[in-house]
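If your schedule permits, I should be very grateful for your opinion on a structural question. The matter concerns a single protein, recorded as an amino acid sequence and a row of backbone structure tokens. Could you please explain, in whatever detail you think fit, how the structure tokens follow from the sequence? I set the record out below, with my sincere thanks for your time.

——
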Amino acid sequence: MKTLLDGIRVLDLTDENGFLCGRMIAELGADVIKVERPGGDASRSIGPFYHDIPDPEKSLTWFAYNLNKRGITLDITTGDGRELFKQLVKKSDIVVESYPVGYMKEIGLDYPELRKVRADIIMASITPFGQTGPYNKFTGSDLIVQGMSGYLYICGDPDRPPLRVSLPQSPLFAGGEAAVAALIALYHRDVTGEGQYIDVSAQQSMVRNTVNANSLWFNYGMILERSGAYRVGLGSGTRARQTWPCKDGLVNFVIFGGAPGAVMNKILAEWLKEEGLSTKQREEMDWDNFDVTRFTQEEWEQLEAPVAEFFARYTKKELFREALKRHMPICPVLNPAEVVDFFQLRERNFWVDVEHPELGCVIKYPAGCMRFPAMPAIKFRRAPLIGEHNLEVFCGELGLSPAEIDKFKLHKII
């Protein structure tokens, strides 16, 4: 039996701004070849590092986003390097790159040129602001893109400046969008025989993920402000707590109105009564007609006070287990160690052990989030070492001789 993308080859020219695209496609069974400059990709210098030892072969960032890829080194800015790359394009289906706008044309490897090599090639370009528009030539770090997408503005506490999400977000959103678009283009090619060029804007991919903030502005003229642990935009200028301290950390719970809220609020009211935390306000509340938009902030705080006291009595696990029994959505806020140990993920075999022979260890990785029962699971392999598959690709697949390889290495083309 074959994997979903068996026989599909991807040439990955991305840096950290597009790595995830290739990884996602590789997890579906495609042969993804990461093309690095001779000596190794600059992104190998991004930490953290295995055992905190700075080394281009020990970057955990590199490990994470280049899992399941093969790796070659090639200077595509040279004439010989371009020709070798074009030979690879003949045998490939998708090319993904994240260079500045115009760079691929400058070195003679833009989409029109690659179509001359393979007419049905699919190419995806990932840039901060897209290939067109007045900002297309601007550079943009993750912080810049988070800021210029509106994402940064709504993150953090209301009494503090905007807070950047700690791990880079725009490269992940953009890489994910590129992977989805490439697969759609692949299906289109299977139907029509035509390849496509895909223009991915990291800014636009981030804007799409602020959809609630955008809809509030479009529909109500309301600018969603930073709210920290609270929910805002209820229509009355109030804020309602969503994240609550408990005995050993935090849990999430939202007091809703409407039909869903009526059910949950009645269950919570009974639970609070059992705990001796019932109040006159709660006992007299008409939960079937509870309208969150008509509550004042003072009324919200009175409503929340016994809930906060209640949550503080128990651990995340205790609240979660009892909430399941009562059919209530109280969700623990897990830290990384708890995520790795979470029983649901273990039962679904989400974590996979990947061997790193050169390090003499096994490292645990998150596997794909999708399952295809009718297809075999792929065998996970660690990210490639610098030039690890040069002989396999250049000699075994392109037919170069060892002497030619030595010549190209001497001139730093491979």
User: Anything to note?
Assistant: Residues 170-192 form the longest helix (23 residues). The mean pLDDT is 94. The CA atoms of residues 17 and 34 lie 14 Å apart. The two ends are 35 Å apart (CA to CA).
